[in-house]
Amino acid sequence: MSVLPVSRGGAGDATAPGAAPAPRRASTRRRLFEAAVVLIAEQGFSATTVDEIADRAGVAKGTVYYNFASKNVLYEELLRDGMDLLSGSLRRAADATVAAGGSHVGALDAMIRAGLDFIAGSPALMQLYVAELWRTNRTWRATLTSVRGRALTVVESVLHDAVAAGELSAELDISLTASALLGMVLVAALDWQSFQPDRSVEDVHAALSRLLQGRVAGGP
User: Fold this and answer.
1) Of 206 and 1, which is predicted with more confidence?
2) Three-state SS annotation for 24-90
3) What is the DSSP letter of 8?
4) Confidence band (pLDDT; 50, 70, 90) for 15?
5) Residue 66 pLDDT more than 50?
6) pTM of the model as a whole
7) How far apart are CA 46 and CA 150, in angstroms?
8) Residue 44 — φ and ψ, nearest 5°?
9) Which of 30, 192, 195, 207 counts the highest number of beta carbons within 10 A?
C-alpha cells in the first residue's frame, strides 16, 4: 500500500477531542493505517512499535493514541477498514455490471477484476489479512471473522441472484462457492504480486475469468 506524502512533526494533530475537523482526523487515521500496514507487513506485528508507526506517518506518538487506544486497536481497525473497502469495491463492481444489463455471472467476473485491482493497490494489507486467517489466538479474531463475513455476503448475494435467474444450478453450495471465489482472488493475486509481477492485471483477470466460466458457470 502506498503511503501518502505528509509533513513531518505532526504534534498539532493530537488536539482535544472535537477540536479537529472530521476530514482532518480521517486523513490522519488513513496515514496511520498506511504506515502501520507497510511496517507490519515488513517486520511483523510484535516487532513494529507505535513510535515507528508515528514516525512513518509523520505525526507525533501522542497522535496515535489520540486516534487508537493501543497498537492492537489500531491493527484491528486497520483490518476492518481494509476489508470494508474491499467489500465496497466488490459490491460496486457487481451493481454496475447488472445495472448495465450484464448477467449475474458477469457480475461475478467484474468482482474478480475489482478484487484484483484492489489487491494490486493494497498488497501489504491483503498479505496481512491472509496471514491472520491462519491465526486463531488473536484478540481481534472476532473482528476478522465479522469483516470476512461482510465480504462473503457480497459474493453470496450475487450467487443467490445468479441461481434465482437460472444462470447457475440450484444445487450450488453458495456459502462454499463464495469462500472459494474470494479465496481464489486473494491467493491468485498475492501469488501474482509476489512471484509473477511481470504479468498484467488484464492477463491475470483473463485467467481467473476462464476458470470462473469453466468451473462455475459451466461454459466452454
Assistant:
1) 206
2) HHHHHHHHHHHHHHHHHHHHCCCCCCHHHHHHHHCCCHHHHHHHCCCHHHHHHHHHHHHHHHHHHHH
3) S
4) very low
5) yes
6) 0.81
7) 27
8) 90, 155
9) 192
